[in-house]
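Record 1 of the preview.
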Amino acid sequence: MFGSLDLWVEKGDALHLVGPNGIGKSSLLQILAGLRRPSFAAELVPASKGHGRVEWLGTIGLLDERPALEPDMPLAKALDFWARLDDSTPDLAAVGLADLDDVPVRYLSTGQKKRAALARLLSQGADHWLLDEPLNGLDKNGVALVEKSIAEKRAAGGAVIVASHQPIDLPDCLTIDLREHPW
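->
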């Protein structure tokens, strides 16, 4: 685990969280997404400080290793579930999956599932993104697609936080190595 962090990310900024597997990158993103509460070591942090807080101006979208798509459904139908909730239309052509719309999700490769998750994220219309290992399973074209999507989100004023141990093109980003925040 890592120590205390104070983060402030402005519109259009990118933050790159780095560190080895198991250091807490995914846990930190889950905290930032509101899926997990931060915890403190009582001997290091006074009890009066509580659990800390996370505040966002706008909505957030999370892309992680779970595409949240029903494995037995054809891809288009699995994405349609989320499209109805988000009042959106995922663009499979934009992520290179146009010919796979009738293929059950369970038959997609790791990279295709990552592209499908990206299609879902793109169609959500979230103001800001949290990306956990967004390049895993992607080929060169898939990496370029993710980097281009991040650049477009930032240009539109969205903040992007990326947790990754892989190199990723994030011009003018702040990088935090979680090894430098020990207990």
